[in-house]
Design goal:
CATH superfamily of the largest domain: NAD(P)-binding Rossmann-like Domain
Structural class: alpha/beta
CATH topology of the largest domain: Rossmann fold
Strand content: 15-25%
Number of domains: 2
Number of strands: 13
CATH architecture of the largest domain: 3-Layer(aba) Sandwich
Bound molecules: nicotinamide-adenine-dinucleotide, uridine-5'-diphosphate
Distance between the termini: 39 Å
Strand order of the largest sheet: 3-2-1-4-5-6-11
Helix content: 25-40%
């Protein structure tokens, strides 16, 4: 049994991670300021004596004796992280400094939830970890992209300078139950719109691509990365390489829900990446990991969840 700190633990991915870790018998401290997370996401864990929920903003230092830290605190939806871009940068950069400082002090292993966004609008396809990316440093998405890039830099520097035991994963678009209805990301938007019979809003002409990963696959990947020996630090891509255009996704959601919704086209947001697909050779080789839930199955699960809990 380990004592494990999960920052951003009341968010979409964090709540699944906390659940898995508590179920494995670990003592879990979930730290969250509820910026995009919610107590509801972890309500099923509250009565478990191995679970503690702490309201705290990672921009400020936090102290606890822990063995492992998963650093997930940061809004992930473009709409959410652009509401307060300065706070988004602070969360990634100062949050990383505070958590790395804690890891250094208590000798904990620490995993950073980085992102495919560090590749920006990629000119290499699919994206391997060796690709340095194509990121606009002064655009509307920069608070997230550059914040996450700086966090990776800090992780590497704490490792090289202080010997902190780090792991960096680059997560590609992930979806699943407990995404908030107002989250603004494409899968939850389309499912809600389809179930409510509203227009499905495609930004741009829908030819941009994303590769969608079901949350259970990601959690398995995260646990495996944390379990690797100290020599393996990443960065390692964790995502599902099956790539779809946004128009294909909209059609799939309409088909599975049997919705009468129409598709409408809205302006494309600034710096919206045109394509995204992970090269997961490294994860396959080092973790013996690959995604197991494909889009149709994952969409069915998420649609059932939204029918029951949201609509
Ligand atoms: P989410 O918005 O649901 O969760 C983020 C959580 O962090 C929320 O609970 C939020 O309240 C909390 N948080 C935000 N700022 C905080 C702060 N200053 N202090 C404490 N808590 C704070 O998003 P998610 O999809 O669950 O993403 C979790 C992590 O995974 C993020 O770091 C995100 O960048 C990364 N990621 C997610 C995806 C994805 O597709 N879901 C892709 C790449 C990377
Ligand atoms: N998108 C869309 N309609 C929506 C929400 C998003 O067409 O209602 C598009 C968005 O422009 C982007 C893709 O879907 O091209 C994925 O968007 P999301 O916000 O989920 O994630 P990210 O852009 O960070 O990959």
């Amino acid at each position: 049994m380990k004592r494990i700190l999960v920052t951003g633990g009341a968010g979409f991915i964090g709540s699944h991670l906390c659940t898995r870790l508590v179920n494995e018998g670990h003592d879990v401290i979930c730290v969250d300021n509820f910026y995009t997370g919610s107590k509801k996401n972890v309500a099923h864990l509250i009565s478990n004596y191995n679970f503690e929920l702490v309201r705290h903003d990672v921009v400020f230092p936090y102290f606890a004796e822990v063995d492992e830290i998963y650093n997930l605190a940061c809004p992930a939806s473009p709409i959410q992280y652009q509401i307060d871009p300065i706070q988004t940068v602070k969360t990634s950069v100062m949050g990383a400094i505070n958590m790395l400082g804690l890891a250094n002090r208590v000798g904990a292993k620490i995993l950073q939830a980085s992102t495919s966004e560090i590749y920006g609008d990629p000119t290499i396809h699919p994206q391997p970890e060796l690709y340095w990316g194509n990121v606009n440093p002064i655009g509307y998405r920069s608070c997230y992209d550059e914040g996450k890039r700086c966090a990776e830099t800090l992780f590497m520097d704490y490792h090289r300078q202080n010997g902190v035991r780090i792991k960096i994963i680059r997560i590609f678009n992930t979806y699943g139950p407990r995404m908030l209805p107002n989250d603004g990301r494409v899968v939850s938007n389309f499912i809600l719109q389809a179930l409510q019979g509203e227009d499905i809003t495609i930004y741009g002409n829908g030819s941009q691509t994303r590769s969608f990963q079901y949350v259970d696959d990601l959690i398995e990947g995260m646990i495996r990365v944390m379990g690797t020996d100290d020599n393996f630090i990443g960065p390692v891509n964790i995502g599902n390489p099956n790539e779809f255009t946004i128009l294909e996704l909209a059609k799939k959601v309409i088909e599975i829900t049997g919705s009468k919704s129409s598709i409408v086209f809205k302006p494309l947001p600034h710096d919206d990446p045109k394509q995204r697909q992970p090269d997961i050779s490294l994860a396959k080789e080092m973790l013996n990991w690959k995604p197991t839930v494909q889009l149709n199955e994952g969409l069915h699960k998420m649609i059932n969840y939204f029918k029951e809990f949201v609509i």
